[in-house]
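Reviewers of the previous submission asked for a worked example of the structure-prediction workflow described in the proposal, so we include one complete record here. The input consisted solely of the amino acid sequence. No template or homolog information was supplied to the procedure at any stage.
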Amino acid sequence: MHPLRTPVTISSLRLPATAAAVVLALSACAPTVDVSPAKDAANPACAPMMVALPDTMGDAGLRKTNSQATAAWGDPSKVILRCGVNVPGPTTDRCVSVNGIDWVIKEGDPVWTLTTFGREPATEILMDPDQISSATVLAELSAAARKIKANRNCVGQEELQNLPTGQ
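From that input alone, the workflow returned the following structure tokens.
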């Protein structure tokens, strides 16, 4: 391998444990992105979303990956998607709704993990907010993520204020 084309893996970027399973080969000599599939990647519910993914994400084009239910945009990759990750349970992590899709956001340094909330199977996005806006990513993926039916939503502070107190 040419010394200037040494592969860089996402694990060398000091990702949180939930994202450490994803390995990217960001080599200029490799047209296919190496992404580890999620545990439930073979779930048939991922298929409608995968065929509805956008061809571009901001200025980054969709690239070929080597695993089922995965996608990558940009060269080097700016956004990685995996369908079939563990469904998030109740959480105090920030949850936002973009175009009717709820996402749990975990801000890492440098990579953020965005996971659909209330949809089974869940979809995980890995992205660096210094490379692409999270608002762009979530807006661009809304139509595809909607292909997996929601069965619950994030609960905001306003909903919590209306819960019975038990007194």
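The CA atoms of residues 99 and 142 lie 6 Å apart. We consider this example representative of the routine output the project will generate in years two and three.
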